[in-house]
Amino acid sequence: KQEVTQIPAALSVPEGENLVLNCSFTDSAIYNLQWFRQDPGKGLTSLLLIQSSQREQTSGRLNASLDKSSGRSTLYIAASQPGDSATYLCAVKGSEETSGSRLTFGEGTQLTVNP
Amino acid sequence: DGGITQSPKYLFRKEGQNVTLSCEQNLNHDAMYWYRQDPGQGLRLIYYSQIVNDFQKGDIAEGYSVSREKKESFPLTVTSAQKNPTAFYLCASSIDRDSQQYFGPGTRLTVT
Known about the structure:
By secondary structure, chain A is mainly beta. Chain A has one helix and eleven strands, in the order E-E-E-E-E-E-E-E-E-H-E-E.
């Protein structure tokens, strides 16, 4: 059964700092990996999706990398801003054979960027 | 204005009552999903549907039921058999089962 772990559970940084959020997964037979953002009491907003054949994806100040063989992904946020404060969730989509193409979520990293 | 809508945003029920959460999408997506989120936990899959008139149980389907009579709608009923129904419920949809999932704003259900 796929398990997804996110470290750290919470992170507090000063504005302007570059930071890295980590995601690890136990079964490397994945179809893709997604990073989401969730504001308090709200739904999820998709940030980046990396297909299993890709190594990284970039969108603005965000860069996500994927190392499938080691079961790891990182989300890099450059020049952090207070508006980046949210919970960041990592989700892995398994293959049809292993998990019926389901998304398995980590518990999230709660990020606070202080002005 | 395309998207996924969930209603209501907040829902309060007494223990022992069934309650139905609404999820509608106008994205023309075939696949739809229901997740449950508890404090400090990741999302857990309750039910999913890949096509109209078909749905499958997720990891925590006990005490829940769904229907998929229309492509746009995937309502979730929380029955009295669900032992701990208080949670944040999120609906999602995707073009097909392998594509990116898009999420609605969620419904917070409180059962007392």
